[in-house]
């Protein structure tokens, strides 16, 4: 392809441009590895998008570019950006979005490559994927079978068992190391846990299912086999990774397996934004990256922030400057002056919700869309009061990183039928699907499924099973539907229609408000139609489900305007004009669960930094005076007066505008004068005197 005067390169600053052009040979051939390490809003993601477009403009084949991002949304966004730039460079016919098939998360891309090489590595290609909840159900089953659920109460719960297992796998460490690093109170159970994990791994293999961690683990194992690694690596000329600071050891070893000499590898990240160490992310990955290869990677640092106004950036810089360890330097704002970020003191969480709703509407009056505003919080349940307030006031919203559309029971039911048809040995799916039938309980379901799992021809075995005594004709209908789907009758997406038509008559018996739920299922069928195949649909919705919305009827269409609610973790990489950070108080930030080790405290500081650096023009941190922390909730304490987060020290206060809401007016003050004291306890005692 011919590259016209490269106007798209002129929008970049000199360092960004160096990163875009580094190691791009004739016809877009790959050169030495590249690391871009720089602070928030410095244009790392934007630089990667330009690099994709530039490579294509120079003649690289977009189908041979692997682009790894932290969410599916981020992959879609990056693809869109690259497309826009490519069109600027090469004209309207340069659309590359459809020819960038390898853009996605590590997990989703892993699933595709594992399927591609399934036969070589002894896996059945029809494997299905367990989400965290399914994995914990399976862990529980295995725990039960091993007799450990009858062990004394202190044996770790199924969730903890899975977390320990996951930690060991992702950190490439032994069970002992994982326990010592993150679960010291479970160390007494090391032998039992090892036996349990052994049984869990065997169960997954028997059932031909992979959990989330397996997607990285199998991929890393393939990348460690020289012959497979070479073939896999040869699929891609360029491998690019965004948010590299949040990758773990497995992910790093996948990359070196694919590209042992680092040629064509480009990663970007910011060590000050590393917030996933609880999932064994390893900030050392990014710091060690240059040394991993010979010749070493080119390092590009960026020093300008294009996102936030100077006052917002100053405040965020002040917070992160107290971090103990940090590689990236402070940035300077290219945006210039603006309003000070605000610290807003409020009575409690209910008032906080009112304040946010009021302010969001005020902003909208002033011309800002809802979509340009976001509310960020530490953990998903912190938005409960706000969600109620938004629903009450009819303000539409979408919640990222919270309860998902697909978590709804009826949606999971329908998916379990599809999954069971895809892989009849998937016991968790089968267990759920079979019990949708009247007269089928855990006992009869288990009996049938155990026979199916053990069979070399699972579908045939399923069809040959006698109907459970009280299920009769319903059973026949069920297995017929499963078989029809398994055989791909009508093709995709007609198969999901088959499942829905079988399931819908049962809805009313199983769930309340069957009408609303039926609408959801119809919507799911529509979503399904945008995927090329059943297995792609199942894989991708399991890995990265659509987000929940306020109207409970599945994901919104694109052109609607809605407010964004998001956990800070899920807000990574994004930006909004206005950002509200809920509960900026000690006990929440840092969480009182996270103040033990100093490493945890540092991660909490980075979390606040990530939250603050999402704002472009307007940042407000809310300080409810009454806030129940985890521990206070657990102990049932009533009176707590929360203090401003310790990460915003007294010395930093002049970087903020401090205010109370509602503003103290004479009238308010008078109305809120101290209440007369009443000793109700004394009255009660007097009652029986
Ligand atoms: P984060 O660390 O939060 O992921 P980032 O470093 O990836 O941030 P981007 O999201 O790529 O930063 O860019 C931040 C904003 O700055 C975007 O709105 C982007 O369009 C803009 N931007 C980046 N580079 C430039 C530039 N050279 N000129 C103008 N705007 C830019
Ligand atoms: Mg980014």
TrEMBL record:
Single annotated GO MF: DNA binding
Reactions this protein catalyses: Couples ATP hydrolysis with the unwinding of duplex DNA by translocating in the 3'-5' direction; ATP + H2O = ADP + phosphate + H(+)
Residues that coordinate or bind ATP: 38-45
Highest taxon of the lineage: Bacteria
Single Gene Ontology BP annotation: recombinational repair
Entry's EC annotation: 5.6.2.4
Top-level enzyme category: isomerase
Domain UvrD-like helicase C-terminal: 310-573
Residue span, UvrD-like helicase ATP-binding domain: 10-309
One Pfam entry name: UvrD_C
Family matches, as InterPro entries: DExx_box_DNA_helicase_dom_sf, DNA_helicase_UvrD-like_C, DNA_helicase_UvrD/REP, P-loop_NTPase, UvrD-like_ATP-bd
Keywords: ATP-binding, Helicase, Hydrolase, Isomerase, Nucleotide-binding
GO cellular component: cytosol
PANTHER family: DNA 3'-5' HELICASE, UVRD / RECB / PCRA DNA HELICASE FAMILY MEMBER
Family stated for the protein in its record: Belongs to the helicase family. UvrD subfamily.
Protein name, as recorded: DNA 3'-5' helicase
Species whose genome carries this gene: Hansschlegelia quercus
């Amino acid at each position: 392809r011919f590259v016209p005067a490269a106007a798209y390169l002129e929008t970049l600053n000199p360092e960004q441009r160096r990163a875009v052009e580094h190691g791009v040979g004739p016809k877009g051939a790959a050169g030495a590895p590249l690391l871009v390490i720089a602070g928030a809003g410095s244009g790392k993601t934007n630089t990667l998008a330009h690099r994709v477009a530039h490579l294509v403009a120079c003649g690289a084949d977009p189908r041979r570019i692997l682009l790894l991002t932290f969410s599916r949304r981020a992959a879609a966004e990056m693809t869109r950006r690259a497309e826009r730039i490519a069109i600027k460079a090469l004209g309207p016919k340069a659309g590359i979005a459809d020819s960038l098939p390898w853009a996605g998360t590590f997990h989703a891309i892993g699933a595709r490559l594992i399927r591609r090489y399934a036969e070589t590595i002894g896996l059945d290609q029809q494997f299905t994927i367990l989400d965290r909840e399914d994995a914990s159900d399976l862990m529980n089953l295995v725990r039960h079978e091993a007799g450990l659920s009858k062990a004394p109460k202190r044996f770790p719960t199924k969730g903890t068992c899975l977390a320990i297992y996951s930690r060991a796998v992702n950190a490439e460490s032994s069970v002992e190391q994982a326990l010592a690093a993150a679960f010291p109170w479970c160390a007494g159970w090391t032998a039992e846990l090892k036996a349990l994990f052994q049984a869990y791994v065997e169960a997954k293999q028997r059932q031909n299912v992979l959990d989330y961690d397996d997607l990285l683990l199998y991929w890393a194992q393939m990348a460690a086999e020289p012959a497979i690694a070479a073939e896999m690596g040869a699929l891609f000329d360029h491998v690019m990774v965004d948010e590299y600071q949040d990758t773990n050891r497995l992910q790093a070893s996948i990359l070196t397996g694919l590209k042992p000499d680092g040629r064509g590898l480009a990663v970007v990240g910011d060590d000050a934004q590393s917030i996933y160490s609880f999932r064994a992310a390893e900030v050392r990955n990014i710091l060690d990256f240059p040394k991993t290869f010979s010749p070493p990677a080119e390092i590009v640092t960026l020093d300008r922030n294009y996102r936030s106004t100077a006052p917002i950036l100053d405040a965020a810089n002040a917070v992160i400057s107290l971090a103990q360890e940090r590689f990236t330097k402070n940035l300077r704002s290219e945006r210039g002056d603006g309003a000070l970020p605000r610290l807003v003191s409020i009575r409690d969480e209910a008032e906080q919700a009112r304040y946010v709703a009021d302010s969001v509407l005020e902003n909208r009056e002033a011309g800002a869309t809802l979509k340009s505003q976001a509310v960020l919080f530490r953990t998903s349940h912190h938005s409960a009061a706000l969600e109620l307030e938004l629903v009450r006031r009819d303000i539409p919203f979408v919640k990222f990183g919270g309860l998902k559309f697909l978590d709804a029971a009826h949606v999971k039911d329908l998916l379990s039928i599809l999954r069971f048809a895809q892989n009849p040995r998937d016991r968790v799916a089968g267990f759920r699907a079979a019990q949708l039938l009247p007269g089928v309980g855990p006992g009869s379901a288990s009996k049938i499924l155990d026979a199916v799992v053990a069979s070399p021809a699972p579908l045939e075995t399923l069809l040959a099973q006698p109907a459970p005594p009280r299920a009769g004709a319903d059973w026949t209908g069920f297995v017929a539907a499963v078989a029809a789907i398994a055989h791909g009758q009508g093709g995709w997406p007609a198969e999901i229609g088959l499942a829905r038509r079988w399931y819908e008559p049962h809805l009313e018996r199983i769930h309340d408000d069957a009408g609303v739920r039926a609408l959801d299922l119809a919507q799911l069928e529509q979503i399904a139609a945008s995927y090329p195949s059943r297995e792609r649909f199942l894989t991708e919705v399991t890995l990265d489900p659509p987000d929940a919305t306020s109207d409970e009827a599945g994901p919104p269409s694109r052109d609607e305007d809605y407010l964004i609610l998001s956990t800070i973790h899920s807000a990574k990489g994004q930006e909004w004009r206005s950002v509200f950070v809920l509960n900026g108080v000690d006990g929440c930030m840092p969480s009182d669960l996270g103040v033990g080790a100093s490493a945890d405290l540092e991660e909490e500081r980075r979390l606040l930094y990530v939250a603050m650096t999402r704002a472009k023009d307007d940042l407000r941190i809310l300080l409810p005076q009454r806030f129940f922390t985890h521990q206070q909730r657990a102990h049932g304490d009533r009176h707590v007066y929360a203090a401003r987060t310790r990460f915003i020290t007294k010395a930093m206060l002049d970087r903020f505008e401090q205010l109370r809401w509602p503003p103290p007016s004479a009238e308010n003050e008078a109305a809120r004068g101290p209440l007369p004291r009443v000793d109700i306890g004394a009255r009660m005692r007097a009652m029986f005197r």
